[in-house]
Amino acid sequence: MSIHFINPVADALRPENFGPVRVTPLMPNFAACIEGVDLSADLPDEVKAKLRDAWLRFGVIFFRGQRKLSPDAQIEVARIFGQPDLGSHMVEKAKPGVDLITIDEKRPPLTNLWHSDNTFNAKPSMGTMIQIQTCPAVGGNTGWSCTRKAYECLSEPMKRRSARLSTVTNARSERFPIAIPFAVDAVAEKV
Ligand SMILES: [Fe+2]
After folding, report:
1. What gap in Å lies between CA 152 and CA 4, rounded to an integer?
2. What pLDDT is attached to residue 135?
3. How do the domains of the chain map onto residue ranges?
4. pTM of the model
5. What is the CA(144)–ligand 1 centre distance, in A?
6. d(Cα 85, Cα 88) in Å, to the nearest integer?
């Protein structure tokens, strides 16, 4: 079996066709840097549409050199991509819908393993928008993976099998995997 890591894309989705937004892919099928956009400004609908297209095309997009956004401004930017939800019930809020996560030696990360945000909510979040407020001199990094590509790379029997599966997660088992015997993630095969 061969796996194609670089997929052909429609002309409209090529990086050079997102103007006036400048898109620089970071990997062939995943992640891109966006330039030429001030997220604190009142953006034209045409630009907002291009940003949303870029997000759907590349999965994760990065904006460098932006002004620090207020919680209200963050909500406005999130509206470019969808209807903001209330986020996680487990973290401090800057305002409803804007989580404020502080990590230092006294407050280690609640989640320090691979995860997708808020899968324990009745309606899981489609995506997450993050702006770092205070960047440490060392560390503070995170990473992303492309589950869309991971799914494409599954064998056909495994795709068929996964189509019959559903998962149920809860916040406790996501945050504290050591407690899984007490808060089991149910993986149920539909009959
Ligand atoms: Fe997260």
Report:
1. 9
2. 87
3. 11-153, 154-191
4. 0.83
5. 10
6. 9
